[in-house]
Amino acid sequence: MLRWYTWAILAYFSLLSLLTIYLVSKAIKDDAQGFYNYFMGSTAIRLLLSAIALFAYYYNFKEDRIHFTFTFFLLYLFFVGFEIKTLLSKLHTKSDKSRHHDENHAL
Fold first, then answer.
1. Using one digit for the tens of pLDDT, what is the confidence trace for 58-100?
2. Predicted TM-score (pTM) of this structure
3. 6-25 pLDDT tens trace
4. Cβ atoms < 10 Å from Cβ of 73
5. Burial call 32-49: b when 16+ CB within 10 Å, e when fewer
6. What residues contact 68, with CB distance under 8 A and at least 6 apart?
7. Cα–Cα–Cα angle for 74, 80, 86, nearest 5°?
8. Which of 41, 56, 45 shows the shortest CA–CA distance to 9?
9. Of residues 7 and 27, which shows the higher confidence score?
10. Which domain holds residue 36?
11. Is 20 in a helix, a strand, or coil?
């Protein structure tokens, strides 16, 4: 049975992932070399915001702390994996286009 906070956690990570993918994808278009800086920065911000969310839940709610933490980290890992897969595929696509473009100009 899903608890109320499962939907809140899912919405939190969905919005955070969409924002991260949008910003990092935009950075890839502008400068593929800057991808790593944007990705690492977004990962650090996600970790900080997630720690704040966990502490806020622990401070305000006494019940279901273990279940909340398990659900939170399970969804955290799922969404981080989804982001990495999505962003790496975008980076590879950009790299392939760039390589193809360079080969055409070399001829």
1. 899 888 888 899 999 999 999 989 888 887 887 777 666 656 5
2. 0.73
3. 899 999 999 998 888 888 87
4. 13
5. eeebeebbeebeeebeee
6. 3, 5, 9, 57, 61
7. 135
8. 56
9. 7
10. 4-106
11. helix
Q: How many domains does the chain have?
A: 1
Q: Which two tokens stand for residue 76?
A: 């955290």
Structure tokens at 37: 């800086």
Alpha-carbon span 82 to 48, nearest angstrom:
19
Instruction: Report the C-alpha gap between 43 and 39 in whole angstroms.
Output: 6
- Confidence band (pLDDT; 50, 70, 90) for 54? very high
Q: Which two tokens stand for residue 58?
A: 């622990």
